[in-house]
Design brief:
With 115 residues, the chain is of the alpha+beta class. It is built from four helices and eight strands, in the order E-E-H-E-E-E-E-E-H-H-E-H. The strands form three sheets. A four-stranded mixed beta sheet has the order 3-6-7-8, covered by helices on one side. The protein has a two-stranded antiparallel ribbon with strand order 1-2. A hairpin with a 2-residue loop joins strand 4 and strand 5. Helix 1 packs across helix 4. It is elongated, with a radius of gyration of 15 Å.
Amino acid sequence: STYKYNDLYFDSSWELAFYIYHVDQNISVEREPEKLEYYFNNSKHYYFPDFKVDGKLFEVKSPYLYSKLLILDTLENAKLNCMIKNNVSLITDCSKYLAYIKAKYGKNFLKSFKI
């Protein structure tokens, strides 16, 4: 699913919850702030981390999508190695951010931004 909030696009409700939480806490957060280069099968690819929070890069992935990154000799694994090389922190549990959104805005708030 895709979400649009404040003219920014998000690939999941988890990403949107992460973003709104940081904005509401007055923490500096940028959406897809950098373009990182990596190679797979001698072919150049680009990866855009989901967020930069106070100067640190973050990627939000469900446990299922994270498990895909761990499969050796795949494009996803090459992306994981790029994340590791560039000190990108992986977030695989967004319960804190989702609980915050539900408590502050209600359980259907994120759905209102679904495209």
